[in-house]
Amino acid sequence: MNPQSPEHPGIVWLNGSFVPAGEAFVSPLDRGFLYGDGVFETMRAECGRVLYLGDHLERLHRSLAALRIRVSAAAPNWGEVVRELLERAGLRRSVASVRITVTRGAGLSPGLPEASAPTLCITARGYVPPAPSVHAEGFRLHVFRSGFSPPLAGMKTLNYLYFLCARQAALDAGADEALILDPEGRVAETSAGSLLARTDGRWWTPSSPFRLPGITIARVTDLLAARGHNVEARPASLEELVSAQTLWVLNSLMIVMPVRSLGEHRFVHPAHDEAAELARRFIAAGGN
């Protein structure tokens, strides 16, 4: 079987069945479609092995519980379904991006009504990691100042338009990624990742109630701790961030990306080799 297009999955799993993507439909009254009433997780798979699947499922269930979306009766064995989807899609021998999406299902009632028939969907597509030359050059960050990180930023909800607008503003400014500030004007995260900084030899990460608890930053923190490097989580201003010598962006797909600059400021030690070595260790320890 030929791997499906990176942009257009050939087959998906929807509500218990594997179907061609072109034949997969949800109700026009689905609350995910109408209101963004749902959550998702994006994971990286390496040759059929989903990295940190258990961590992603734990975060998924926390978000579902917070939004009162119950899927216990409809939930599959996520790991088995994902592995079969990768096999059917011809992605068992390559790197893939896997996404689980859960919505409350169809309904027009106000508030957060009971999810009597939630919509469950899993998609997989080929993923091409950033080239070594991109890592060597590093990301350019742009501070997004049109608003601040939304109240639901601590959950990976389908209400994602703010972050897409932030990324577009960064692209329009000639940057690669957007830096998000919280309502207090402190650093929260980027539009699609967590931040890890090093100042005078000490690793730290910005903390804020208006940021997603990142799985990659948590696991990388463990890897650094295993080598005697503790990572401090603390509130940080922009001024504190630019005082760092090293800054990285982390997420589940690209794993670790060195940052070259933030606006006009350039970081003096992007630590490309360290980032690449840590990414290799992250993949090796991924389990599942």
Automatic annotation (TrEMBL):
Source organism superkingdom: Bacteria
Q: Which UniProt keyword terms apply here?
A: Aminotransferase, Transferase
Keyword Ribonucleoprotein applies: no
Instruction: Locate the transmembrane regions by residue number.
Output: none
Q: Which Gene3D superfamilies match?
A: 3.30.470.10, D-amino Acid Aminotransferase, subunit A, domain 2 (3.20.10.10)
Q: Which GO terms describe its molecular function?
A: 4-amino-4-deoxychorismate lyase activity; transaminase activity
Pfam families, sorted: Aminotran_4
UniProt GO BP: 4-aminobenzoate biosynthetic process
Question: Which Gene Ontology terms of cellular component type are present?
Answer: cytosol
The record's annotation in InterPro entries points to: Aminotrans_IV (IPR001544), Aminotransferase-like (IPR036038), BCAT-like_C (IPR043132), BCAT-like_N (IPR043131), Class-IV_PLP-Dep_Aminotrnsfr (IPR050571)
Q: Give the PANTHER family listed for this entry.
A: AMINO-ACID AMINOTRANSFERASE, AMINODEOXYCHORISMATE LYASE
Family that this chain belongs to:
Belongs to the class-IV pyridoxal-phosphate-dependent aminotransferase family.
This chain's protein is named Aminotransferase, class IV
> Whose protein is this, by species?
Syntrophobacter fumaroxidans (strain DSM 10017 / MPOB)
